[in-house]
Amino acid sequence: MEDTLRRKYELRAELFKALAHPMRLHLLELLRDRTWCVCELAAAAGIDKSVASKHLSQLKAVGLIADERRGTLVEYRLEAPCVLEMAACAEAAAARSLRERLGGAEALA
Amino acid sequence: MEDTLRRKYELRAELFKALAHPMRLHLLELLRDRTWCVCELAAAAGIDKSVASKHLSQLKAVGLIADERRGTLVEYRLEAPCVLEMAACAEAAAARSLRERLGGAEALA
DNA sequence: CCTCATTGTTGCAATGTTTCGAAACAATGT
DNA sequence: ACATTGTTTCGAAACATTGCAACAATGAGG
Asked: Which fold has domain A2-80?
C-alpha cells in the first residue's frame, strides 16, 4: 500500500517533469492544431534537431504525444488534449502567484 | 512579442517543475484537507525537516501553497485547488500511457 | 530579563540528474 | 550511391536533491 502510493506519486512526477521545460511546452503548443515533423518543429522553435528529438522523445515517453513515420519524416501529434488545459491552468496560477509575489504592479498581460 | 511568449513558457515550466517531484506531490496531497505545520509534514512524509522546508518553499515560490506563522509553528495551506485536479488528470494520463506502453498487461490498479 | 526547548530556515558539500551541441549513426526514398 | 530526416552517443556545464550542522525566531518558565 505504501509502495503503491509512492509509485503513484512517482508516475505523476514523471509526467510533470516532462512538462517542466519551456521548450517542451512550446513544442506541445505547436502540436495543438496539427501534426508536425521533427524538422519543422526544430525550425519553428529555433533549436537543433537533435535537441528537438530528445524533447519529443521525453514527451512521448509519458504518453503526451505519439509519433508516426511517414517516409523519411516522423510526424508527431498531441495525444493527451487535457495537457493543454493543464498548461492554461498552470499559467493562470503562475500569473496570479507572480502578481501577488511582486505586489501586483508590473508584467503579465 | 517573442519575449512575451518565451516568458509565458518559462512561467509555466517553473510551475510544472515545482510539481515534478514525488515528495512535493505527496506534501500537496497532505495539504488537501487542512493546514499542516512543517514538522507534521516531515513526520508524515518520513523526511528531514530541512528537506520538507525546502520542498515547501519551492511550492510556495510558485504560489501553490501559502504559509502563516502561528507561534513557534509555521502552518502551510493549499492555495491553488486546481493543482489537485491537474494531478489527477496527470495520473490518469500517465496510467493510460503506461498501460499502452507496456501492452496493457500489468500494474496500475 | 535571561535561558531554554521547540520549530523552521539556510549554508554547505556530496551526489545525482538534465540539458546542450556536435558528431556519429540509422532509416528511408530517389 | 546519395540526400534527407531522425535518433543516439559523448562530454561539459548547469541544476537539483539530500542530510547535517549552524543559525534564527518564537514562546514558556524561572
From this structure: Arc Repressor Mutant, subunit A (1.10.10)
Chain A: closest CA distance from residue B41 (Å): 16
- The residue that leads in pLDDT, B91 or A15, is A15
pLDDT value for A100: 65
pLDDT reading at A59 higher than 80 = yes
Joined together, the cell numbers standing for residue B51 give 528537506
- Between chains, do A93 and B87 touch, taking CB under 8 Å as contact? no
DSSP H or E segment with residue A89: helix A82-101
Cell numbers linked to A55: 524533447
Residue A74 has φ and ψ, to the nearest 5°, of: -125, 115
- To test the contact with chain B by mutation, choose from A30, A60, A97 the residue with the greatest count of B C-beta atoms within 10 A, namely A97
Mean pLDDT of chain A: 86
Tell me what the mean pLDDT of segment B15-42 comes to.
Answer: 96
The domains of chain B are located at 2-79
Q: Is the CB of A39 under 7 A from strand C?
A: no
B106: amino acid identity, one letter: E
Protein CA B4 to sugar C1' C6 (Å): 46
Query: CATH for B2-79?
Result: 1.10.10.10
